[in-house]
Design brief:
- By secondary structure, this protein is an alpha/beta fold.
- The protein has two domains: about 10-100, Outer Surface Protein A, domain 3 (Alpha-Beta Complex); about 110-360, NAD(P)-binding Rossmann-like Domain (Rossmann fold, 3-Layer(aba) Sandwich), CATH 3.40.50.720.
- Helix content is about 35%, strand content about 15%.
- It contains twelve helices and 14 strands.
- The two termini are about 30 Å apart.
Length: about 375
C-alpha cells in the first residue's frame, strides 16, 4: 500500500479524486476491453485487450476490489474506516485510469437504439453486444472539427463511442455551414468544440463529449492531451500547419503507443488513411518519406511554410468531406471493436468523387534499421 490508496503497479498518473463519482453512489464495472484476473495470492490484474498498460492491485486490496466491483458485493464489514477510505481511493484511481467505467456507459450499449448496428457486428462473425460495449468503453481524440472532423465526430457519437474529446481553435462561421453538417445557423460565432459537444449530447445522451478549445503547436501539446484523456485512437482531422501537424502527432501520440488515423478531402478527392499503429506500421513521417521523391518533401514543406504565412482559402466540398468521414468512421470502428481488419493499415486510399475511381498508396512496414525516434520508441 502506498499513501492513501493501494499500490497500482506500473501506473504513475496523477488523479483528480473529485472527478470520479464515489463507488458507493455510481456503480463502476470493468471496462469491456479489459480482462480482470484475480490471482490466488490476492493480487488483481487488469489486462487490456489493446493499447493501455496492464495494472495490478496488490493484496489484500486486490481481492477487496474484486469482491466489491467485479462481484458487486458489499465492502467487507471487518474493514475499518481507514481501510474503507483506502479501498474507495483505489477504486477511484482505477476509474480515473479507464479500466473501470460507470455501468451506465456499458448498459447504454445494450439499448434498442443500437440493434441494427449490433446485428451487423454479429453478421461479421463477432459477438455483437460485446463489440458495442467496446465502443461504449472507448475514447477517441478528434483533432480538428472542420468538414471531415465534425462529420466523423457525429458518426462516431451516433455509433456509440463512449467518449469523444473534441479539439479545435476556431469558431463556427457562416462559410462553414454548407459542408460542416454538425453546425447550424444559430452556432455562428460559437466555438466549434463547444457547438459540436452540445449537438452531440443531444444526439446521444449516453456518451461523453469533451470540448477543448485550443490549438496544436508541438508534439508536447499532443502528448499532454494523450496523457490527460488516454484515448484508444487519435484522429488527425487537422490540416494546418501542413506536414508539421502530422509530425507533432507522431511525437505526441504514435511515440506514446496510441494508434493514429488520418483522413480528409482535397476536392474532388476524399482520402482516408493511413492508419498508423505503433509496432505494426511506420509513423507518418516515414510514410510520407516513402511516397515522395528525394528532395520533394523539403520542397513541399517550403511551400507549406509560405501557405502558413498567407493561408489561402482552399476549395472545399461537403460531399467529399462526408465521404471521407464515412470511410474513416468504418476504419475507426474496426480498430475499436476488432470487427474486421482495418483496410487502411499503413496505407492511404484516395477516391475521386468525379469518376469514383480509387488509388492506394503503398503500405510501409517498419524497417529493422529505422532510426526514426517515433518508430523506435
Amino acid at each position: 500500500m502506498t499513501g492513501d490508496r493501494a499500490d497500482l503497479s506500473s501506473f504513475n498518473a496523477s488523479f483528480d479524486m473529485t472527478a470520479t463519482a464515489d463507488a458507493a453512489r455510481t456503480r463502476l464495472v470493468p471496462c469491456p476491453s479489459t480482462e480482470v484476473v484475480l490471482l490466488d495470492d490476492g493480487r488483481l490484474l487488469f489486462v487490456p485487450v489493446r493499447g493501455r498498460e496492464q495494472l495490478q492491485v496488490d493484496a489484500p486490496w486486490g481481492r477487496a476490489v474484486h469482491d466489491v466491483v467485479v462481484d458487486g458485493g458489499p465492502v467487507p464489514p471487518s474493514f475499518s474506516s481507514h481501510e474503507r477510505e483506502v479501498l474507495d481511493a483505489t477504486i477511484r484511481s482505477l476509474a480515473a485510469s479507464g479500466v473501470l467505467i460507470p455501468q451506465s456507459r456499458v448498459a447504454a450499449a445494450d439499448v434498442a437504439r443500437y440493434d441494427r448496428q449490433v446485428r451487423w457486428f454479429a453478421q461479421e462473425g463477432v459477438d455483437g453486444p460485446n463489440a458495442q460495449r467496446r465502443l461504449a468503453a472507448s475514447t477517441v481524440l478528434m483533432l480538428g472539427l472542420g468538414g471531415f472532423g465534425a462529420s466523423m465526430a457525429e458518426m462516431l457519437g451516433r455509433a456509440g463511442v463512449g467518449s469523444l474529446v473534441l479539439l479545435d481553435d476556431d469558431h463556427v462561421d457562416e462559410v462553414n455551414l454548407p459542408r460542416q453538417m454538425l453546425y447550424s445557423h444559430n452556432d455562428v460565432g460559437v466555438r466549434k468544440s463547444l457547438a459540436a459537444a452540445q449537438h452531440l449530447e443531444q444526439l446521444n445522451p449516453f456518451s461523453q463529449f469533451v470540448p477543448v478549445h485550443g490549438t496544436i503547436g508541438s508534439g508536447d501539446d499532443v502528448a499532454r492531451l494523450v496523457r490527460r484523456h488516454r484515448p484508444d485512437l487519435v484522429v488527425c482531422a487537422a490540416d494546418r500547419p501542413p506536414i508539421a501537424i502530422k509530425g507533432w502527432i507522431d511525437e505526441g501520440a504514435f511515440a506514446l503507443g496510441v494508434p493514429v488515423l488520418h483522413g480528409g478531402s482535397r476536392p474532388p478527392y476524399a482520402y482516408v488513411g493511413p492508419l498508423l499503429v505503433p509496432g505494426v506500421t511506420s509513423c507518418y513521417s516515414c510514410f510520407l518519406a516513402s511516397r515522395t521523391q528525394p528532395g520533394a518533401e523539403a520542397l513541399e514543406q517550403e511551400v507549406n511554410d509560405v501557405r502558413n504565412l498567407r493561408p489561402p482559402s482552399l476549395p472545399a466540398a461537403g460531399w467529399c468531406d462526408i465521404t471521407a468521414a464515412s470511410l474513416a468512421t468504418a476504419q475507426a470502428v474496426a480498430v475499436l471493436t476488432g470487427v474486421h481488419e482495418p483496410a487502411v493499415l499503413g496505407r492511404e486510399l484516395e477516391l475521386d468523387a468525379r469518376t469514383l475511381t480509387t488509388e492506394w498508396m503503398t503500405p510501409l512496414q517498419p524497417q529493422r534499421d529505422c532510426s526514426c525516434p517515433n518508430c523506435t520508441h
